[in-house]
Each structure stands twice: as structure tokens, then as C-alpha cells.
Amino acid sequence: MHSENNQEKSGKKYWRSLEELAESPDLLAKMKNEFPTGAAELEVTAGVDRRKFLGIIGASAAFAGLTSATGCIRKPSEKILPYNKRPEDLVEGKAQYYASAGRFGGSVLGLLVTSYDGRPTKIDGNPSHPMSLGATNAFAQAAVLDLYDPDRSQKVLKAGVKADGGKTTVKSLKAALAAAAAELKDNAGQGAALLMEAVPSPTLLGLVREFQSAYPKTTIAIHDPAMRWQEAAALESVGYKNAQLVNRFDDADVIVAFDADPLGLEGDSIRNSKMYAAKRRSVDETKKMSRLYVVEPAFSLTGAVADHRLSLRSSGIGECVLALAAELSDLGLAIPADVVARGKQAANPNPKWVKALAADLVANKGNSLLLVGNTQRAWVHAVAFVINSALGNVGRGVIVRSSPLPAAKTLAELTADINRGSVQALVMIDVNPVYTSSAEIGFADALKKVKTSIHLGYHSDETAMASSWHFPRSHFLESWGDLLASDGTASIVQPLIEPLFPSLSEVEFLAGLLGKTANGYELVQTQWKSTAGADFAAAWRRWLHDGVIKQTLGETLSGKSDFSALGQRLVGVGTSPSPSVSQMELLLTLDRSVYDGRYANNAWLQELPDSITKLTWDNAALMSPKTAKEKGIKTGDLVEIKVRGEKERRLKIAAFVVPGVAEHTVVVQLGYGRTFNGRVSSGTGFNGYELLGRDDSFNFGAEVQLAGGKYDLATTQEHGVSDYEYDTKVGAEAIRNRGVYRELTLATVTAEPSLEKAFGKFNLGNPKNHRTLLWTKSIETRGNQWGMTIDLNSCTGCNACTAACQAENNISVVGKNRVLKSREMHWIRIDRYFAGSVDNPDSIQAVFQPLACAHCETAPCEQVCPVAATVHGAEGTNDIAYNRCIGTRYCANNCPYKVRRFNYFNFSKENDEQNPLYAMQKNPRVTVRFRGVIEKCTYCIQRVNAARIESKLKGEEIIRDGGVVTACQQVCPTDAIMFGNINDPDSRVSQLKALPRNYAVLSELAIEPRTTFLAKVRNANPELDSSTQL
Amino acid sequence: MTPIFPKWTNRIPTLVAIGAPIVLIGVVSFVWYFFSPKWTDVGYSPKQPVAFSHQLHAGQMGMDCRYCHSTVERAAFAAIPPTETCMGCHSMVQAKSPRLQLVRDSYKTGKPIEWVKVHMLPEHAAFNHSIHVGQGVNCVSCHGRIDQMKVVGQAEPLSMGWCLDCHRNPYPNLVPKDQITNLAYDPVKAGYDFFTDPHRQRKDLKPPQHCSGCHY
After folding, report:
1. N or C, which end of chain A is more exposed by having fewer CB within 10 Å?
2. Using CA atoms, how far apart are residues A365 and A333, in angstroms rounded to an integer?
3. Is B82's CB within 8 Å of A83's CB?
4. Do B209 and A926 touch (CB under 8 A)?
5. d(C-alpha A760, C-alpha A1022), whole Å
6. What is the mean pLDDT of residues A639-666?
7. Facing A874 at nearest CB: one of B126, B128, B210
8. Residues A402, A555: contact at Cβ < 8 Å?
9. DSSP assignment of B165-183, as one string?
10. Which residues of chain B does A86 touch, with a Cβ-Cβ cutoff of 8 Å?
11. A945 contacts in B (CB within 8 Å)?
């Protein structure tokens, strides 16, 4: 077969979807088309066909011509409204930057927020903050859009209806808060409870303590998907009370993640990614790299970049950790005897694999790191801690720190308290438990029994409607606060704008309930007054400027671990039966786009394709191809998932078949199927919480049945260019691997420094033979010549670049129906390829390749534009003059990378009409595009121009290296993207381009792209190397 | 037999041969001139809410442009001054003049004065004042003799061709950096030579001429 030939000739075979792998005729036919099916078809409102539509347009154009006969001679007059009193230091139209902080996915990130004339427009990482180090994630990027969410709560609600006649003002808000506080005072004496997220804010926690002393019968409960209950319980069992683990990747040479996602959704993922990537990039200098092992039930970002990945159901992970402990004990590591004894009996999923892993760990004692995911049980965390201790990692990569949070109950415990009648007043700070909890807990019913329930939330969500009071919360860009990073570094949360609507910050809300009249600013200042020393004003200014308070709070615990009680804990654990076709295992996970549902009303995140499935606007029931085949389920089929627990739970959901899911496991992401009145979130996906059990995120005995019917899932996995080439002349047989994605092994890199042979396989033809240019082009060699490299060895496919690009460049959202027609507008498409055998889940690998306009030297798009709207800039950029474009789309057709996007409709205007506040987010330095023009990556030309002006004003000929940082480069948590002057041999981008790993995608077309890629290097363990790789 | 066409029709080809080019040239010249910004935009001088005279302030009293348009060297926009700047003087000078009633009202109420924009660039073009002023382009090059205008009007077409004329050869428009706001300064009369000016290190200014220099 040709595919095997390919394997020999040009290495791995990569495919984007199962249809592509199976070479389905439908897909091949689609790939032959200029534009994806349906993309170019006119879709107008029902009842209006193309002819009628054109008629309407013609008529309105004629009218416009009549009425504006004078308008075409003289431009309409415009007004300039200057400031009355210009604020100090303000220069109109110039960006200002403020340091702040935010909490995203459980990690506190220091931020640097851009503001134009008082409007926050972009959020970036604060380089001096240890957890962000200048980068952010997609959540933080999209948070600025949340500020302008038109559906954010703007009214005080009393028992679900608008209080104060629906005209909430700052004054009436305060009055309502006082009324709620009085009601609280009446009831809280008999038992109160405070339900909040695990927010490490000293000011807020101080107020919580005050609340407790004001109402001594107060229960504190925490409801937060990032709260690590199991880990805390494990630490308590080995002698650390109220403690948490902080992982440091700085020196980790061997990393093992058991169902953990430290580079994605868990822990300090930005810092972890930065440190991890540094250890990967070192391959170019030292020929050494860290090695990452992952055992998990479905692809996480960490799993996707792993060197070795074992696909294992969630309930089998603990057994695997135990087996590893026993193996390590055999290699002479001091593991407690009862753990070893239990480990010997453990069901080892892959003895050879675990043995090799154990040997690798022992060889890297002290520089290794074992992580266990949030959904795993406490005993699994405990055994992993034992292993980390025995390997000498505790105190190095694994640090035990005291938790700043008070001792708290879980939501289930709180609900039991309410049902017992010991809670008469409930205060909920920014939580939505009515939606985000299991029906088995029965919180929604319990809430009705509470006399006074006061809720603070950003949306008038499910909990807001069920509470006796609801208050709108301010966005963090509107409120004062403070946050502690996991290492104890404190940051002040600084507002950039007055609240757009009358609302309260968390601290103002709680202080108001305590009868205090101080505002957020005063509350935070009071909290920090004592730490400042003599000159508080100066210290305060410095803190606000720097964004970090250089003082470590909390302590690192270094006590002796006590493993004596561990043996008892291991009795009877982990003996779960394997799932089968009829009794599948259900795994509920947080979503990479909407997290636990809190970002469900954020259009950017909804349209962001999931890293693995590339799904937009929906979640789905994920299952492996083998399992799906056994059950006769295909992608898009509606299935019913049934779980028998205390109550039978059912959910009808669309299925999505994707490799990498463990056998007989079905994965459902949470956070979709919201029922509150958000205009973005409504109608997206299926509510996974309906399947959630009391305290597990994985359950046994899930029955999955075809429910009949189909559902359209908008996945972008087949959009754009493929590693395949379909040759129409020879027919379907002539599909060949084009070396779009390239991967090497560390052995190859070490043995063959020039990599000529390794890459020789990909030389698919002499570029000279393809060179039939319309005109010869002299390549500019003066001044700054811009170029970019993307290191595939670092990239984790986290989507932050796509989101940052959207925020920086005013990219429109198009909606699910248009994504189905391939009309999405993202300038950066992250192609996810799979490799390996579908029948063997352990062999499946996933790789990522961010692809944007590559700014070709001899760009095919420029040669076909009939109006010269897309032309070459003097600095090597491929420019578009939007007002010249007439929308022929010849350029998009001729682009070999398929990275040019067309505005089929006036998306930006539609966005603004649907969400009137979105316009406030727009970057004033970038044109907002209109209907009928092409757009694509500009290399952030607005930043290039700003830097050019700056350097010219300074009298410099050349923009210094690092003077231009593109939005995607700035946000990248793994520093995978480098941008700079390729004319300067000393610039960092030139040095990267000189590496042997550097290659150009589709170089045989002689297009000479300015964006090149650095091949991925896989650090395979020689013991496990199946030598299917290069 | 009577001919179908009368004899005078024989002259039609001649008349067409002479007339058509004249009509064509007429139409082209008409559009060329009357549809261009030179005709449509130059001279645009709308009525302002306050009859502020640049002739008086910048001309007779010799106030520097940057006293009011203070951000011109730092930002893309040369900001219109806040009401506060006006009141800096007019709280004492002409403090009771009825012509300044709007300014005083604005200062009291905080409501901005709604000035009418005079210099409007074509859409989709980005312009940055700071770099032009920073390289020594005199204000007069684009704005004309503002110091002689009672009511500010547009002096130059501000069209793309006009911009490019200077971007292709900026040197005639450059003045010593301390003469930027001296609208009467004539580099030819003053004998200024850009290339021998010791205060200029960069001799090759390379103003952008490619699309993305201004359109992005």
C-alpha cells in the first residue's frame, strides 16, 4: 500500500481526521474544491433567495445614491470633542499600560492591560510576575471581551425579579445591599454560610474572617473546579495540614503526568509551560531535552506533547501509580512496605512501559516530577507523593506550601448542613452552584430552604435566579482587589475603568454585608497598610507600577512526611472493574474553551476551536474510533448516556469520534448547555453537569445508546491545507505526504547534526522546477526584513495565540452556522495532526502546527490580485489595502497555505449589532474590516509601524531586535514564536532560522515563506522506542 | 433616386473626429479637476462653534502651535486643547466677552466644545503627527498659513498622490528642527540644506511608500 511506502520514504504519516485517514471519497472530493463546500454559497435569511437579495441590494443602492448626491462630493462633517480638563499624563490616542492581576483556571496571573483613552482593549502578561512571565492563556486574552459582555448582570434581583423597578443605580445598589445586610443580620445568628471560590485574596479572606467573628455560627464552603480537595486530603494523610503542592518545572528532566494537565488546565500552567519549553529548546545547544510521560484517559495538552503517552481509563490510573511504586521499590527506592505490597497486586496496564519509566525516574533522581490530576482520588495523590519523596523531588520540583485559604467544607457538605436546617443565611460570592453541581447533591432544592440567600455574580445566572438576592459583580478590570500567586507573590488588582454598570467587587460586596461603607480602594489599602513600612504612599505606587509585591507570603513546609497511616488507606482501593461495551466509563472534564461554564457567554472562547477536537460552539461525547465502531456510533450521531447512581441520570448528546480516548470510555466536557439568558451561550452544546455524580468526575456503568437523529458539530479539523496532497491527474491513489509537519527524534538530532539526511526525505521536488513566476522579483535586502519562526518542539497547541490575535486585530466572530461552512475568520489556524494506528490507542500521537500567513517572498496571492490590493511591502511583508480589495478571492484560491479569510458578510457590523458593547474593545490601531474584503495575518503591521516611528524618532536606522513583538509571540506561554529582522544575522529569529531544525512548509513551491518552522524533536526512551519514528 | 442620407451627413465623420476628442478631453478634465480633493476639499472652512481666530493667536500674538496642540510631538493626533487651556488665559483676558460664553459654559459644566473637524484624511489611512514633526516637516507643508487664517480652512488636498509626492522626495519640505512651527520659514530663502545640517544624523529618511506604511 502506498501509505506504507510513504512511511518508509518520508517518515510519519499525519492525518487530521479519521475521514482523512480512511481517504473517504467525500472528503477527497471536498479537498479538490477551491473553497470548502458551502463557503461560497450565498446564505440569506429564509424566504429571500439570491435573485431577490440582489434586487433588494440594487434598490437600496439606488436610494442611497439619490439621497446622498451631495454626500459623495463632500465627506460628512465630523466633530472633535476635546477633554474639558485633560487628565494628567494622558496623551489622546496613545496606549497606556496598567499592571493588574487576575485568576484564570485556578492560576493567578500578573497582567499588563492596554488602555486607549480609558477603554481597556487588550490583556497581556506582566513579565515581572512569576506565574505569567509575560505570557497569558486564552482565558486571560478573552477576559477583556467579558468586560463588554452585553449580557452581564446589570440589575439587582430580588427573588429572581428586578428589584428597585429595574433601574439599578449606584445609589439604589447601595440601598439594596444595606437591605440585604439587614436581612442577613436577622437570620445569620441562627447559622450562616459563606460559599465562595478558592480565591487567594488577602483582603477578601480578611473580610471572611471578620464575617466569621460577626456571625460565629458561620460555615465556610468552597466550590471551585480548581480547588484541589483530593491533593489536600492526601497531604493531610502524610502529615501536612491545610497544605498544597506547588510544582516547579525549572529543573525537571523527567516529568510524569498521571491524568494531570499541568501545561493546560491545571496549576500554574503558564509558568509550567515556560519552564517546560525552555527544557525542550535546550536541544539545540546541549543536545539534551527533558522527557515527558503521560498516562491519561483522553488527550490533554500535556498528553498531546508527551514523548510517551499511555492511554488509560481514569479509574485505572491509581493502579498504574501503585505498580510504578512497586517497580521503583525493586530498583532500590525506599518506598513504604505496605505501598509496595499493594503495588505488587496492582493491575499494571503496560509492564514494559512502567518498567522503562521507573528506570528513567531512578536515573534522574531529584530532577524528576510526578504529577497527579485533580480528578484522581486522594490515595493516588498520596502514593505519588510517596514516590516523589523517595525520588528526592520534594523540596525541589514538588514544594509543599501552606494554603492561604481557610479550612472549608465542600458543596456537598454545605448542602447537607442546609438540609439539616443549620444554615439560615447563605452568602454566595461569585459562584454558580445551581448550574455547576451534581443533581445528586441537590443544592438547588436545598437553596430554597435557606431563608436569606445573597448572591454576587457576573451574570444573572441559574443561581442568581434561585437566590433571594442577586447583586451584579464588577469585572476585575473595574475593581480593586489583591491576589496571591501559588508561590506567595502578591499583586494588587488595579482597575482601569469605572464599572460600566452599577456593580460591586467581591470585597465591596462582603464589606457591605458586614455594614462597612468603605469602597474597594480603601479596603485593599487598609489590608496592605501594615506591610508597607514607613512610607506607605511610595510603596503603594511602586506595587501598582510593578504589579508585584516583592514579599513572599505563606510558607514552605519542610516537615517530615509521615507515611505510617498510608497502608490503611490503600485497603480496598482501586479494585474497580474494567469498563466494557455495555458498561462504559464516563469521564467529565473541564472544557478548554469555556472552563466550567463561566466563559460560556464569551464569543471568542466559544468560537475558539478546541485544541484536540477542533470543535467550536459545542461540546460532544468523545469516544475512540474502536469503541465507536463496536457500538456502531459515528460522529454527529445523537446518543443517550445513562448513569445509574442514587438517581438515574441521562443526557442526550452528539457523539464525536476522536483518537486518543481510552477504550470504552466516553468523555463529556462540562460548561455547555447553559440555561441562563446569555445571547452567546444559548443553544451551545449539552449540559454535562446533568451526568455529574456526587463527588466523582468519573463514574462507572455509563450506558451509551444511539438515540436516533443527527447533530451538526462545527469542527475545523479539516479546514485548510493538509499534510496530504491529492493529485487529480493520477486519482485517489496518489495521495502523498508533503512533509508539512516534520518530526525528529533526539537520537537523530544527536547523531546527525546537519539533519540533511533526515530532511532529505521531504525534498519533494526541486523548487527551481516549480518556478514559473509571472515576473522575477528582486527580494529587498535593505533595512528591516521581517520574518518569523515557530518552534513546533515547544508548541502545546494551547490556542492562546489565536485568541490574542483576535483581540489585537479586531477579528470578527462568525457563529456556528458559518464555521460549518468554513467561514471562520481566525488569522492563526492551529492544525492538529494525529499520527499512529487507530486500533492501538497507545500509539496515537497528536501534534500541533500554528499556521498563519507566511508572508511569502514570491507570494502567489500577489500575482493573481487583479487590483493590486495585496502587494509586497518594502520590509518583506505581504500587505493588504482593504479599501482596494474588490473581493474576487483569487488570492485565497491561490494561497497554498489557505490562510486568507474572506468577509462573506459584514461580520464586524453584525457583531456590534448583536453585542453593542463589543465595539469598545476594538483596537484603534487596526482597521475594522467590512463585507467583501479578504484579510489575514499582517505580522502585526500596526506594531511594526509604531516601532518604526519610535526608532526613527530616536534617530536609529534599524529597529532593534525585540523592538517589534507580535501579539501571538507576546502571548505564547512556550515562547514558540519568534519574530524579528532576518536581515540581521545576530537577531534571535535569524539565529533560529540558522538551526538545522528549520524548514519551510511547502518549500518545493518556491514561494520562499518568511515564516518557517522548527521541527519537533521527540525524546523517545530507547527502551520504549518502537522505531516507527525517524 | 433620392439618396437615403442628405448631403450634409457627409460631414458627420469629420465633426465626430473633431468633436469627440474635445468632448472626451472636456469630460476627463472636468472629472480630473472637479472630482479631485483639490477642488472638493481644499478651501473647506466650516463655521466653528467659537469664532477662534488663528490669525490673532498664532499670527499676531505669535503663540507657538504646540502651546495648544501639545501632543503633536508625542502622538499620532495633534490634540485639540482642552477647555482648561483656553481658560488659562481667558479667565483674565476677555473674561466677560460674550463671544467666549460657550468656552466659559463648557468650563463650568464640563461639557466639551464641539469643534468641527477640518483636516480629514481619506478613510483607511493612518497618519502620525509625531514622526512628521520629529523629522522636521514644517506645519505649513500640510496645513498652510494657519497664522493668516481667521477661520481655519484646508489648504492642501490631503490625497494619497499628494502624500506620496512628499514621501518620494521629502527634502524640500524639511526645515531645521527649531523652525517646525515657524510657518513663515522658507528653507530656500533661508538657505537651509538638509544634507549639511549637523543636527541630523540620518540622511536617508526613507519615508514609507509601500501600502502598509499607511494602510493597516
Report:
1. N
2. 10
3. yes
4. no
5. 24
6. 89
7. B210
8. yes
9. HHHHS-GGGB--GGGTT-T
10. 79, 82, 84
11. 126, 128, 212-213, 216
Q: What is the Cα–Cα distance from A819 to A822, expressed in whole angstroms?
A: 5
Which chain B residues touch A93 with a CB distance below 8 Å?
71, 75-77, 79
ipTM above 0.90, yes or no: no
**Residue A709: count of CB within 10 angstroms of its CB:** 11
The whole-number pLDDT of residue A40 equals 58
Question: Which among A91, A925, A955 is the nearest to B74, CB-wise?
Answer: A91
**Secondary structure string (H, E, C) spanning A639-694:** EEEEEECCCEEEEEEEEEECCCCCCCEEEEECCCCCCCCCCCCCCCCCCHHHHCCC
Grid cell in block for residue A109:
496571573
* CB atoms B113 and A82 under 8 Å: yes
Distances (CA, A) of A362 to A328, A331, A350, A358: 7, 8, 18, 6
Confidence of residue A1028 (pLDDT cuts 50, 70, 90): very low
Nearest to A938 among B201, B205, B216 (CB): B216
**What's the pLDDT at A41?**
59
Which has the minimum average pLDDT: A152-156, A163-167, A782-786, A929-933? A163-167
In this prediction, residue A299 carries a pLDDT of 93
A547-575 mean pLDDT: 74
Confirm or reject contact between A954 and chain B (CB < 8 A).
Answer: no
Give residues with Cβ within 8 angstroms of B40, minimum separation 6.
Answer: A73, A74, B34
Q: Is the pLDDT of residue A445 over 70?
A: yes
Burial class (CB in 10 A: 0-12, 13-18, 19+), A397: buried
User: Nine-digit cell at A336?
Assistant: 513504604
Taking the model in full, what pTM does it have? 0.90
C-alpha cell at A413: 457538605
Residues of B in Cβ contact (< 8 Å) with A879:
210-212, 215-216
* Alpha helix stretches (DSSP H) within A88-201: 138-147, 170-188
| Alpha-helical regions (H) of A238-307 | 269-281, 283-286, 301-304
pLDDT surpassing 90 at residue B198: no
Is pLDDT of A770 > 60? Answer: no
pLDDT exceeds cutoff 50 at A730: no
State whether residue B105 sits within 8 Å of chain A by CB. Answer: no
Q: Which residues contact B87 (CB under 8 A, 6 or more apart)?
A: B103, B104, B107
Helices assigned H by DSSP within A564-608: 566-569, 603-607
